[in-house]
User: What shape does this take?
Amino acid sequence: MTTQQLTAQIIKKKSFLCIGLDVDLNKIPEHLLQTEDPIFEFNKAIIDATHHLCVAYKPNTAFYEAYGLKGWKALEKTINYLNTNHPDIFTIADAKRGDIGNTSTMYAKAFFEDLAFDSVTVAPYMGKDSVEPFLAFKDKHTIMLALTSNQGAFDFQTKTVEGKELYKHVLETSKSWENSENLMYVVGATKAEYFTDIRKISPNSFLLVPGVGAQGGNLQDVCKYGISDNVGLLINSSRGIIYASNNNDFAEAAAAKAKELQQQMEVILNSK
Amino acid sequence: MTTQQLTAQIIKKKSFLCIGLDVDLNKIPEHLLQTEDPIFEFNKAIIDATHHLCVAYKPNTAFYEAYGLKGWKALEKTINYLNTNHPDIFTIADAKRGDIGNTSTMYAKAFFEDLAFDSVTVAPYMGKDSVEPFLAFKDKHTIMLALTSNQGAFDFQTKTVEGKELYKHVLETSKSWENSENLMYVVGATKAEYFTDIRKISPNSFLLVPGVGAQGGNLQDVCKYGISDNVGLLINSSRGIIYASNNNDFAEAAAAKAKELQQQMEVILNSK
Assistant: This one.
C-alpha cells in the first residue's frame, strides 16, 4: 500500500485510527479460552467489529512471542485474515527490530515476505546499516522509533546531541538514508507540543502515534500540532479499545470505543 | 546460571567463546535440506561438534523468524536441546528487543520463561522502563547494546551527549536501574581501543563481543583492553565458525575453527 492509498482510505473512512492487537490471555473473555486458538478468535472478533472504523491494525509481536509456537501461529492467522478479508487496511508489525545488515535483512523477510505485513517498526540505535535493509523493500514501510510515549524516552531520546535532542538528530539523519521515502516514525502522543518541531523536520511523513488513551495522550492536541497536508497521522489505541469490556460483549464494547475515536477524528478531518 | 558459574565454566573449559547459531538455509549443506527440520539438524550437528570448545551459544532470532512457524519451532528445539544436554552452557537469545513496560514484560516471558534462555539482548533507545522488566527476572541476564560492531554505530552511539559519547551515557545511566547487577553489555570487537574506557565505567560486567572473524575484529586486542578479574568477556563468532565449510564435513570444519579460537583463548587465560 502506498502512502497516497493510505491517505485515500483515511479520507474515505473519516478515520486515522490504528487498533493495537496486543492480546493478553489474562485479559480476554473467559469463554474464548475454551477455543482452539483464543488469540486468533479474539483478534477476529475485534477485527469483524471494528474494521470499518479504523485504517490500520498493529499487532505487537511481544504478545505473540510470549505464547511461543501457538502465539506465532495466531500472529500468522491474524495477518492472513486481514490480508484476505481487508486488503485495504494498513498492517503494522510492531516489532521494534534492528540488527547488523544481514540480520536486519532476515527480519525484513520475516515481516514483509513471510508474514506479508505492510510495515514494521524498527529501533534506530544501530544506525543506518541496521535500517536500510528494511527500506530496500520498496513497496513496504519502515516505521522508526523517534520519540516514544514512555517515561524512559527522557533517558536518552531527549538528551542533547550536536545542539539538538537525540530524537531530532535521528529524524534528520534518517532523511539521508537510501529509500528514506519509505520511512514513517513513531512519535508518542504524551508530548503533543513536540509535534511542531517534528513537522519542521518531517512535514509530510506518516507518524504512528501511540499513547492516546491508556497512556494519557490527547487526540486534539496531537492533531493540532501534528496533522499534515496528507493527514500524516495514525493514532494508535490498544488497551483502551480491545479491553473495553472483558465480558461476552467485548467486541461490541471495542467497536463503541473505536467509534468514539473515529467520530472525534471525523470532526478533525472535516475542520481541516 | 550466575556470572560466578559462567566464570567457573570459562576457567574449566579454557574458553570464553560464544558460537552464534545464525542459520541461513542458503548457506547450509544441501543434504540437510532433505531432513524434516534442516535448521535444527544443522544446529544439533554444530552443537555436538563444538560444545566442549565454547561456553555459550547465541541464536539470533531473526534467522528463525524469517522462516515463520518452522523457524520458531527450530528455535524451540534448539534451546531445548541445549538445556537438556548441556545445562552448563550459557544461552543467549540475540533478539535486541525493547518496548514499553508491559510489552517488555511479554518479551521477557517469551525468552526467559517460554523458551528458557539464560539471557536476552535488548536495545536501550526506549530507556529505563523498557529494560527493567527484563532485569526483574533475577536469575536471568539482560545484555544491553552499548557499542555495536557495525558501521552504523557511528551514526548515534558515538555522538557526544552531555560531554560523553552516547554509548558511555547508556552504560553509566543503566548502572542506576533496578537489578542492574543482571546487566551485561554488547560491545563490538571492531573498536578494541574503546574497551579501556568501557572498563572504567563497568570494571567487571560481562561483555558480549561480536565482530571477531567475519566482521574483522582482533581477539588479542579485545582481550588486552577488555579482560577483567572475572574474565568478563564472551567473544562471539557466528559465520566464521558455522559456515567454515558447506560440505558434508561442515561440523568438523566448524569444530576446527572453534578450536583455533579456543586455543588462542587458552593462551590468553594462562598468561592472565
